[in-house]
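HUMAN: Now follow token order:
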Amino acid sequence: MADWIHPNLHVRRLIGMGAVTFGLLLLGGMAFYWLAPPQDNPFKPVSLSARPGLATGFKLDRLSQNPAACFAALDKVGIAYTRIEREGPRPECHLDNALTLDQSLTPYSTTLSMTCPLAAALYVWERHVVIPSAERILGQKVIRIETFGSYSCRRRNGEKTGRWSEHASGDAVDISGFKLADGRTILVKDHFRENTPEGRFLRQVRDRACDLFSATLSPDYNALHADHLHLDMGLDTICS
């Protein structure tokens, strides 16, 4: 018997089973990589134009580790932006791999400065959630997204002490409402809890934001978010 073959029959069987299992896993992994839709495959680059899938949120979050890939993804879908690197008034308030959003699919009510990964996630949410949801539920196009802003050098909830907000690093944006083509403005503070098409629209864009952003906070979270949706790409994961 060859020296490399273990003399014990049970051990040889165990080794054989292990080799077969490894081979099946390898073949399964290869099949998944080549056959799974790109948006469900965490190993393939993110596509901002593709409908979100199982791995989209993970891949958006991973863009923070690859700024070049992030800006390339924005360029591919035609987002207009101005790159910025800004020293904040405090060490916690630097803007790294960030941009000023010049033009997306829909105008925003104020100029937004944010990190590239947040801009990428915001585009996916706008394109694949907000726009189709408004047309399906409200029968209208969204012509402007109302916002309280993104970058702001402050601590959480505006406190004087405690953890710094994701706004301090440009990793968060607050959405207060949506202006429609028929002149209506759907506001979080007025319509979120209503059992109306407007309320259903706001709750749906909140629910589906949870698949794209690290944290999604709404009036269901606490009174401090009674008038807006807070969307961020920070380390904490929460959907409320």
In short: The mean pLDDT is 88. Residues 38-239 form one domain. Strands lie at 80-86, 95-103, 112-115, 142-149, 172-180, 185-187, 215-217, 229-232, 238-239. The first strand starts at residue 80 and ends at 86.
